[in-house]
Amino acid sequence: MELMGHENFLDKNIQRGGRIHYADAKNDSWEVKIAKKMRNSLSTEVLRFLIILGVCIYVVDFFACLTVFPPVQGGGDVWKLLDIVQYQQFSKIDWGNIMRAVTTVGAVQFLLKLRKIIVQIIRDLKD
Fold first, then answer.
1. CA–CA gap between residue 106 and residue 96 (Å, rounded)
2. What is the CA radius of gyration of the chain?
C-alpha cells in the first residue's frame, strides 16, 4: 500500500498503461491472441498484484491482532472462532475484542498515512 502513494511509481505505471495495446485480428491463432492479451495486461499486472497483496496483508494483520485480543469470550483462538461462526453461536463472540483488532489495524494504517503526509510536507517546504 506504501507504493500506491508514491508519485514516481504511479506515474510510470500510468504511462505504461497508456501505451499502444495490441489489437486482436481475425486471423490470429489462439496462441497469438493469448500472447497479445498477456502483453496488454502487463502494465496493470504489478498494480493488481500489489492491491491483492495489500488486502491479504490486512487480513493477516487482523488475524494477528486476534491473537492478542481473543475473539471468543473467556479466551480462545481464531480456530475456536471459526467453529463458533460455523455453528452460528454469535453470542459467544467477544465483539469488543473484534473491534479492538479492527481499530488496531486501522490505527496502524492511519499512522503510516500520517507519517507519509508529514514527510511530504517537509519535502515540499525544503523545495
1. 15
2. 22
As a whole number of angstroms, the distance between CA 76 and CA 66 comes to: 10
Report how far residue 106's alpha carbon sits from residue 62's, in angstroms, rounded to the nearest whole number: 10
Residue 5 has pLDDT above 70, yes or no: no
Alpha carbon distance 55, 93 (integer Å): 24
pLDDT at 42: 74
pLDDT (tens digit per residue) in 48-76: 888 899 899 999 999 999 989 999 887 77
- 46-71 burial, b at 16+ Cβ within 10 Å, e below that, comes to ebeebeeeeeeeeeeebeebbeebbb
